[in-house]
Write a structure and sequence with these properties.
Blueprint lengths: L10 H10 L2 H8 L4 E6 L4 H14 L4 E3 L1 H5 L6 E6 L4 H21 L3 E5 L1 H5 L10 E3 L9 E9 L16 E2 L6 E2 L4 E5 L4 E3 L5 E9 L4 E2 L2 E2 H7 L2 H8 L12 E8 L2 E6 L9 H15 L9 H12 L8 H22 L3 E5 L2 E4 L5 H26 L6 H37 L21 H11 L7 H19 L5
Parallel strand pairs: 1-2, 1-3, 3-4, 4-15
Antiparallel strand pairs: 5-10, 6-9, 6-11, 6-12, 7-8, 11-14, 12-13, 14-15, 16-17
Helix pairs in contact: 10-12, 11-12, 11-13, 12-15, 13-14, 13-15, 14-15
């Protein structure tokens, strides 16, 4: 039904028609002054970029917001608050109690919350506290699962359309079982929930992991055929068997005051995941009342512009030339890890690394710098085609890039030194990815004092990154955010 703009003549008819509309459409007519979605950028890094690009491709509306905006009260302008992946603890620190309270007040008053992975972790009891949910302790969960996994889904609007897959079911080797492609999604190092409130709904539970998924650095299909999970768990000193995820909550929904809270340990924002894209559209409609077919966004247009650059002389636009040096340095560093058999690419945005290596941090750095290069080259193409790039913008970007370069080059050199040392340590046995000699539950950490020293300098001695990497990635993140949120952003 097509809804006309309201006026006195047809007001009565509009009210009558509104009663016949689905609830979500009715809300649109009553709250059309609000923007659909606030996308919380802080401390998301790789995961925020992944979500940004997928949502843009789908044509789903959102505005990027940061902690400072939330503390100033920006959420009053939105229907839904979206938090992508990333370390929940770091997101909470960025918000401070003032920002966390602003989010609680927003949801309590009727705003809706969607959190994916780390964004889900932010909403539970040791974060903002929107739902009475806690995490399983490390000793009881699988800390290092990543890849494709089946879901057992329960009837709910967010699953509308996924049963329409034309792909036939198939039988998986190893442990066997029939898989329905319409129920396959992606998870990356998810935590595991303990639900403390019976009113919380479980919208999906985890099913079987697919053969191409990984537990730590072990391919699940290979181990299912030829390995022994129990023996490997003794060697690795962590839980590895993906069967431990079976029937655990994957997506949950609850209420906080008047608002809905949907938390997912599954990454529906994985690139090229058609099922995930369907669910994202459904979530946008369910939580923000936005209805759209999902059109190709800016990324498709950018592809055309990038293609046109092939025939252009690069010229002397300083920011793009400087940042190309950064991309070259990080690309060579990734090649360094590949030729030392420390990692390989699983997809264009994610490495698979050997246990004991801080592969996610290195991957994040490379992908974000690569994105900055692409966006600066896009802007250069616009300049060539007659658009204006103000001198003050160019100078500001140049200052960003110079600060990044000052931090990046010594970081890469020290990281190469560390990686060689870690490679040698791996040849002598297992290596924990963090530095303390003893970890939670008495597990062995790293006993090499020189490795400990360099790791602490580069990353700190915690799972969530700190040290020199944190200073570097914050500078990279600030530049990328500036490019993404600029009015001239493509």
């Amino acid at each position: 039904m097509r809804i006309k703009k309201s006026n006195k003549k047809d007001e009565g008819r509009r009210l009558k028609d509104e009663k016949l509309l689905p609830k979500s459409l009715s809300l649109v007519t009553r709250h059309s002054s609000l923007s659909p979605v606030a996308f919380f950028w802080d401390e998301s890094f790789l995961w925020g970029l992944m979500a940004y690009n997928v949502l843009k491709n789908l044509g789903l509306p959102f505005d990027l917001v940061r902690s400072a905006d939330i503390k100033k009260g920006c959420l009053k302008n939105y229907k839904m608050f979206f938090v992508p992946g990333g370390w929940a603890s770091n997101k909470g620190k960025a918000l401070s109690e003032r920002g966390r309270k602003a989010i609680r007040d927003f949801v309590d008053a009727g705003g809706n919350y969607l959190g994916l992975c780390g964004g889900a972790g932010l909403a539970i009891m040791d974060g903002i506290g929107l739902l009475n949910v806690t995490r399983k302790p490390t000793k009881d969960r699988i800390p290092s699962f990543s890849g494709r996994i089946c879901l057992n889904v329960k009837e709910h609007p967010i699953w509308n359309g996924i049963s329409n897959s034309s792909l036939p079911p198939f039988v998986k080797g190893g442990r066997g079982g029939i898989f329905y492609p319409s129920h396959i999604f992606h998870a990356y190092w998810p935590s595991q929930f303990i639900l403390k409130d019976k009113k919380i709904k479980t919208l999906a539970t985890f099913g079987d992991a697919l053969p191409d998924a990984f537990s730590s650095d072990l391919n699940i299909g290979d181990v299912n055929k030829t390995g022994n999970w129990a023996e490997l768990e003794k060697r690795y000193q962590i839980n590895l068997d993906p069967a431990r995820l079976m029937n655990e909550p994957a997506i949950i929904e609850g209420k906080f005051g008047k608002g809905k809270v949907v938390l997912s340990l599954v990454h529906f924002d994985t690139p090229d995941d058609e099922n995930g894209q369907i669910v994202l559209r459904n979530l946008w409609e369910y939580l923000s009342c936005f209805r759209g077919q999902g059109i190709k966004g800016s990324r498709g247009q950018r592809g055309k512009i990038n293609h046109s650059l092939e025939s252009l002389n690069p010229g002397t636009l300083e920011p793009s030339q400087l940042v190309l040096e950064l991309e070259t340095a990080t690309a060579e560093f990734i090649s360094f890890g590949e030729r030392n058999f420390l990692w390989f690419w699983r997809n264009p945005m994610l490495l698979q690394w050997r246990r004991g290596i801080r592969g996610l941090e290195y991957c994040t750095l490379f992908v974000m710098i690569k994105e900055i290069v692409e966006r600066l080259m896009d802007r250069k193409a616009l300049c060539v085609m007659g658009y204006e790039l103000k001198e003050k913008d160019t100078s500001r970007v140049t200052r960003y890039v110079l600060r990044i370069k000052k931090l990046l080059i010594p970081f890469i050199e020290k990281s190469k030194q560390l990686l060689i040392m870690e490679r040698h340590a791996l040849q002598n046995g297992q290596l924990s990815p963090i530095s303390p000699p003893l970890l939670e539950g008495g597990r062995k950490g790293c006993n090499d004092s020189e490795i400990q020293k360099i790791r602490t300098e580069l990353f700190s001695d915690t799972k969530s990154h700190g040290g020199e990497f944190k200073k570097l990635i914050d500078e990279v993140d600030n530049l990328l955010f500036s490019l993404l949120s600029s009015p001239k952003n493509l």
